[in-house]
Specification:
The two termini are 30 Å apart. This protein has seven helices and ten strands. The radius of gyration is 20 Å and the shape is flat. It is of the alpha+beta class. Strands 1, 2, 3, 4, 5, 6 and 7 form a seven-stranded mixed sheet that branches.
Length: 294
């Protein structure tokens, strides 16, 4: 499976968001597009870690909750425990049972999610204007293997929900793990403060928005940032076969109509900013790794 490298324009994004506003959410399954970003969920360089689907859904009539999770089966204890812990955290971080029982864990979170949605319905009914008649509330989670290299595993998280208001909300994020010990990889594995790093980000976002200058880019952002013009995404770096995926969320740096900005920086461009930790994840622990400092 490979990533869709086509340019995704703002007009395409707005067309999709029109459908989201009507509550029409595209069905999701493994190896299909997981978000309007058009990045395939299965981006595999090597395929040594197998996954098994666990799915639990509950429906109360006016509320629906579902978790679809692809859990690791032959990844080793450290990596499996780390991924399961992250799964619990991103679903709510309140499960007190054994993380290794993934079916039991996601069943717990589905019940908790449905309960929280039902509380929203009750609260809306107590408001003077009453509940939004005829609208069903839902929150669906999808967790899967996104990319695998020799030394890293990237997991994908997606959530689509409607809890009232003028439109639903889509979240797309994930985490890259080091296979050997399950370490979660953050932005600290890059020298983001070095000259040129922010320029790579701003140039990529200019391409996303279809603009040419810093001022034009600033006009697309929520805040009139002077420095830095573009902040790092809250989502950590997502390692893929083509490079590092930078993934922003709805409302994180721009308005809802502009979607969830993203871009991929190839490893070739990121070489001067990689720590040894990042180099080993991509190129392995060898003399070859030392040749990528420039």
């Amino acid at each position: 499976f490979v990533e869709d490298q086509s340019v995704f324009t703002m007009n395409q994004y707005r067309s999709i968001l029109t459908f989201l506003g009507l509550g029409i959410i595209t069905a999701m399954n493994a190896c299909t597009v997981m978000s309007v970003n058009k990045i395939d969920i299965c981006d595999i360089m090597v395929d040594t870690i197998k996954v098994v689907k666990d799915s639990v859904g509950l429906d109360s009539g006016i509320c629906h909750a579902e978790v679809v999770s692809y859990t690791l089966k032959n990844a080793g204890k450290a990596l499996t425990n780390s991924v399961n812990e992250w799964t619990s955290e991103i679903l709510g971080n309140s499960y007190t049972g054994n993380y290794s029982d993934s079916k039991k864990m996601i069943t717990y979170y589905v019940n908790e999610t449905l309960r929280s949605l039902q509380e929203i319905v009750v609260e809306d009914a107590e408001e003077p204007e009453g509940p939004e008649g005829g609208l069903s509330l839902f929150r669906n989670f999808y967790i899967s293997k996104m990319s695998e290299g020799k030394s890293y595993l990237t997991m994908s998280f997606s959530c689509d929900e409607f809890i009232g208001g003028c439109h639903g909300l889509l979240t797309q994020s994930g985490v890259t793990f080091r296979k050997s010990d399950g370490r979660r990889i953050g932005w600290d594995v890059f020298f983001t403060y070095r000259d040129g790093f922010e320029e790579l980000m701003t140039d990529s976002l200019k391409a996303y928005f279809g603009v040419d200058t810093d001022e034009e880019l600033r006009s697309q952002l929520l805040k009139d940032n002077e420095y830095p013009l573009v902040p790092l995404p809250r989502c950590g770096p997502l390692f893929t076969t083509k490079g590092v995926l930078f993934q922003y969320q709805s409302y994180e740096i721009t308005c809802y109509a502009n979607g969830m900005p993203y871009f991929i920086l190839p490893y070739e461009q990121l070489k001067p900013y990689m720590t040894e930790t990042a180099r080993r994840l991509v190129f392995g622990h060898s003399a070859q790794s030392k040749n990528f400092s420039k």
